[in-house]
Design goal:
CATH architecture of the largest domain in chain A: 2-Layer Sandwich
CATH topology of the largest domain in chain A: Aldehyde Oxidoreductase, domain 4
Number of strands of chain B: 5
Largest sheet of chain B: 5 strands, mixed
Distance between the termini of chain A: 65 Å
CATH class of the largest domain in chain B: Alpha Beta
Shape of chain B: globular
Distance between the termini of chain B: 44 Å
CATH class of the largest domain in chain A: Alpha Beta
Helix content of chain A: 25-40%
Radius of gyration of chain A: 28 Å
Strand order of the largest sheet of chain A: 3-5-1-12-9-10-11
CATH superfamily of the largest domain in chain B: Beta-grasp domain
CATH architecture of the largest domain in chain B: Roll
Number of helices of chain B: 5
Structural class of chain A: alpha+beta
Radius of gyration of chain B: 15 Å
Oligomer: heterodimer
């Protein structure tokens, strides 16, 4: 068929028409009859005892319908916001898991902690009512940094969490690492901070809830990356609403990046409130509100040591990290700096012994959870930075030291000392490709040209691997996951041969409506335009775990591939009957079922028609209809990786770092739609560049106030910060996913921060600079240059 | 108060609160939800519309300022007047994958059309500078810049016809 668009093509996206013409359907665009407006009243203090709330004046304010607070949730016996992971320390002692009430009870623990919810006829009236709420706080000292939080005498967030340590987690063979360090010819050491980030999807979070008394059913529209998981966590564990009485819809969602993959208290409060006020309730966050309530990312303080032999071979790697959890445990919180961090410390190298200790720490800050990359950028940054430090100290070229330690392509599958087994990869191939694409051989010429303008030019490498396609449930269960991480897809073939796919992943920019349609078009030989993808509605889609961890194509696509295979298998049975041939003799290719060695055939449309008009049909052995469903649980993670090379120019007069060139050669496995993959790489890289050069969430230590609380204080990457990037793929095919795919959503963000900072350090290395913490802002660089021992002139 | 203005080519008269903002008026009263609100500090540019042909951030413009003016929103952006065709800038964004989640897209398009109209021979540097007031978190801007350059070229070509 002429309109089949298969794997490897780049059709224009199906979803674009509505977005380009202003006809998207985001939560904030939705209106329901009789809808009311809700606003959350949030703690202005980082840490305080909540002594009481006087609702009287707010309730008397024009238009105010209800004012709800923690005492009301307690009276209704609502649950605590659940954490999806339960990690343990080395002795098997479970993490401390204090309750996370949706509306604060007794105490507030971060600026932005929700205290009350005011519902009124209009947003203006709700805001006016909220202003009149009298809340009595007894302000306590706040602690926001991890180093400060674990010191004796630090403010304690929870009475039963000594030293604010949620869990003292470890991974690896500590004794083997110590032995290796004793034998080392050289030990490189590095202390670093992985800066706290705020995800900032362009669409602020929003929710609408409605209760239908006639059916006793709730509907929640929410800006979520995983509506089925919200239905489960909120319905089963928080509000006690049976699953069949709760519909969760996540329509068009304006970017997620992890920020929208948690069950938030706002969702639970609004759903509960809708029944109480017997009218739909809508809440839309302002950007400022998002800054103090969207879960933050990263925020580590780390000491790392790399032991090497005299030839620069890595013998052992030891990492001690303090990871900030914020004021409570968010949905995936404790999993991120542990299970998604430690197992990545092997990188693409043959380091035989690795030990990692992570102290997971509560502070008076917004809860920290997954943000694009989630644990893996932090691990990559530590490893790729210390490799450069070691190379510099030992006088070995940075590319050469990487080559000496890289896992050769032939050595895969490769078992690391930190749990994970890489199925395939070719890090050397990616490195070689990137060296050419980045024109590294002429870097000296460019550096000299920069020097002639008084600028310092630097080149930085990051050769990395990540683990994604989250996740094999059995493996995740052993690590503390409290749920499964499979995916499901239903392929519904209509009597006329068109196809609707219901899938449990969620599309919020990744182009699933296009990529998944290509898979179906390719496999069934159905025209691309005759395939639609349905997602984001628990009433329409059977089940699903949603989109995060670069899992949609890897796990969801695999479920879709499996379901499509089942459709073909059933089609063969129908064809075997209609063509009066043995089933084993039926071949399916290019949308046609044919009898081997003959010209007898039936088209896919004919088979679909016969399935729904079963006049001449083997009803005794086959059911009518052509619709198949599959669940897929991966057998392993997938391991995309690659080589990124950043080139920067530093202006010593101002300290400004300009990213002048960026090259990425990534191994993402099979590429279904090259245009979309390239777009994911661009976006991912720039999020990592943002962390390296611009973004920083800053708290005031004593008060717990977020100082970078708006787009004017928190620097997001903008168009004029960036050069045209060169991205390419150098793929090895995943050995255990049906199509050989590995995932591409996070690679850019994981690989890029180290490449950029390595380039900045390289640019300043002649001044004795050995490390620069992120973000490398003009202020930070300028100060560094003022303190450098050498004159700053470029000559 | 009552105001009258031309909205996407049609005469429009509405009652507005004097303190209401154009973005709110469009979204809440006129049901034109293509204009998005992504921040509260006039930084993100998701709400850009054309007021008398010039790009403005509708989240910081009071509704009474529309009285007697001509307003173009993303819903009114089109190819030839009265046609169902997309504007060349919209086509360029589709062709070059200049959008992912779509939330910043209406503002990007309105800014891009104004940039191209203002300067016929846009360079990459012009586009990057001109998009400073529009934030995108998905694309890394690369394909947006490519799209704007292509869209501007197509607008020039159409003018030449």
């Amino acid at each position: 068929m002429s309109n089949v668009i298969g794997i490897g093509a780049s059709p224009k996206r199906k979803e674009d028409q509505r977005f380009l013409t202003g006809r998207g359907n985001y939560v904030s665009d939705i209106k329901r009859p009789g809808m009311t407006a809700g606003v959350f009243v949030r703690s202005p203090h980082g840490h305080a005892v909540l002594r009481g709330i006087d609702k009287a004046a707010a309730l008397a304010s024009p238009g105010v319908i209800a004012v709800l607070a923690g005492e009301d949730t307690a009276a209704d016996k609502l649950g605590s916001l659940p954490c999806g992971w339960g990690i343990s320390d080395a002795k098997g002692v479970p993490m401390k898991e204090p309750p996370f009430p949706m509306l604060a009870q007794g105490k507030v623990r971060f600026v932005g902690d929700m205290v009350a919810f005011v519902i009124a006829e209009t947003p203006e009236q709700a805001n006016a009512g909220a202003e009149l709420l009298k809340i009595d706080y007894e302000v306590l000292p706040s602690v926001v940094g991890v180093l400060e939080a674990v010191r004796p005498g630090a403010p304690q967030l929870f009475d039963d969490v000594p030293n604010n340590i949620c869990c003292d987690w470890e991974l690896g063979d500590k004794a083997a690492v110590e032995t290796a360090f004793r034998k080392a010819a050289h030990v490189a050491k590095l202390s670093l901070v992985n800066n706290r980030l705020i995800g900032n999807p362009m669409e602020p979070r929003a929710a609408i809830a409605e209760y239908e008394p006639g059916t006793d059913r709730f509907t929640l529209w929410t800006t979520s990356q995983f509506p089925h998981v919200v239905r489960f966590l909120m319905g089963a564990l928080v509000l006690n609403i049976p699953q069949h009485k709760l519909r969760v819809v996540a329509p068009d969602v304006g970017g997620g990046f992890g920020v929208k993959q948690f069950h938030y208290g706002e969702e639970a409060v609004i759903t509960w409130a809708a029944k109480r006020v017997k009218r739909p309730v809508k809440w839309v966050a302002s950007r400022s509100e998002g800054y103090v309530s969207d879960r933050h990312g990263r925020d580590h303080v780390t000491e790392a040591e790399l032991a090497l032999d005299e030839n620069g071979k890595f013998l052992a790697f030891r990492v001690n990290t303090l990871a900030n959890m914020g004021g409570y445990l968010s949905t995936f919180g404790p999993n991120i700096p542990t299970n998604l961090y430690g197992p990545l410390l092997g990188g693409v190298y043959t380091t035989p012994a690795i030990y990692c200790n992570v102290k997971v720490v509560f502070t008076n800050t917004v809860p920290v959870d997954a943000y694009r990359g989630a644990g893996r950028p932090e691990a990559t940054f530590v490893l790729e930075r210390i490799v450069d430090v070691a190379a510099s100290e030992m006088g070995i070229d940075r590319v050469e030291i990487r080559r000496r330690n890289m896992i050769p392509k032939e050595a895969y599958p490769y078992q690391t000392p930190v749990l994970v087994q890489y199925d395939c990869g070719d890090p050397m191939g990616c490195l070689d490709g990137a060296l050419v694409a980045a024109d590294v051989k002429d870097f000296g010429v460019r550096k000299a040209a920069s020097a002639s303008k008084g600028k310092f030019r630097g080149l930085g490498y990051s050769t990395y691997v990540e683990a994604c396609g989250l996740a094999p449930s059995r493996f995740a269960g052993r690590l503390g996951a409290r749920g499964g991480l499979y995916e499901s897809a239903t392929v519904r073939v209509h009597p006329t041969g068109q196809v609707t796919v219901m899938i449990g992943t969620h599309n919020h920019g990744q182009g699933h409506e296009t990529t998944f349609a290509q898979i179906v078009s390719d496999k069934l030989g159905v025209a691309f335009e005759n395939v639609d993808i349905v997602f984001g509605d628990t009433d329409r889609v059977q089940f699903g775990m949603g989109t995060y961890g670069s899992r949609s194509l890897v796990v969801g696509g695999a479920a879709l591939s499996k379901a499509t295979d089942k459709v073909i298998a059933k089609g063969k049975k129908i064809a075997s009957h209609l063509l009066e041939a043995a089933e084993v003799d039926i071949h399916f290719e290019s949308g046609k079922f044919s009898v081997a060695g003959t010209d007898r055939m039936k088209t896919f449309e004919e088979i679909a028609g016969a399935a729904y008009v079963p006049h001449n049909y083997p009803l005794e052995v086959l059911e009518p209809g052509l619709e198949e469903q599959a669940y897929y649980d991966p057998v392993n993670f997938t391991y995309p990786g690659g080589c990124h090379i950043a080139e920067v120019e530093v202006d010593p007069e101002t300290g400004t770092v300009t990213l002048v060139n960026y090259t990425a050669v990534d191994d993402v496995g099979t590429v279904i739609n090259p245009m979309i993959v390239e777009g994911q790489l661009h976006g991912g890289i720039v999020q990592g560049v943002g962390q390296a050069l611009f973004e920083n969430a800053v708290y005031d230590e004593g008060s717990g106030q977020l100082l970078s609380g708006s787009l004017m204080d928190y620097c997001m990457p903008r168009a004029d910060h960036l050069p045209m990037m060169k991205v390419a793929t150098h793929s090895t095919l995943c050995t255990h996913t049906p199509m050989g795919v590995k995932g591409c959503g996070e690679v850019g963000t994981i690989g890029s921060p180290a490449a950029v900072i390595n380039a900045v350090v390289d640019a300043l290395s002649h001044l004795g600079v050995t490390h620069v913490d992120m973000p490398a802002t003009p202020n930070r660089i300028w100060r560094l240059l003022q303190n450098a021992s050498l004159p700053v002139a470029a000559e | 108060m009552q105001i009258s203005f031309t909205l996407n080519g049609r005469p429009t008269t509405v009652d507005v609160e004097p303190a209401s903002l154009v973005a709110e008026l469009l979204r809440e009263q006129l049901h034109l939800t293509g204009t998005h609100i992504g921040c509260d500090t006039s930084q993100c540019g998701a709400c850009v519309v054309h007021l008398d042909g010039l790009p403005v951030k509708s989240c910081t413009l009071l509704a009474p300022a529309l009285d007697g003016a001509t307003l173009l929103t993303i819903e009114g952006l089109q190819g030839a007047p009265g046609s169902n065709l997309m504007h060349p800038m919209q086509e360029a964004f589709r062709e070059h994958h200049g959008l992912q989640c779509g939330f910043c897209t209406p503002g990007m398009l309105m800014t891009a059309v104004a940039l191209a109209a203002e300067k016929p021979d846009l360079t990459e540097a012009d586009v990057r500078h001109g998009l400073e007031g529009n934030i995108c978190r998905c694309t890394g801007y690369q394909n947006i810049v490519v799209s704007v350059l292509a869209g501007a070229a197509a607008m020039n070509a159409a003018k030449g016809d």
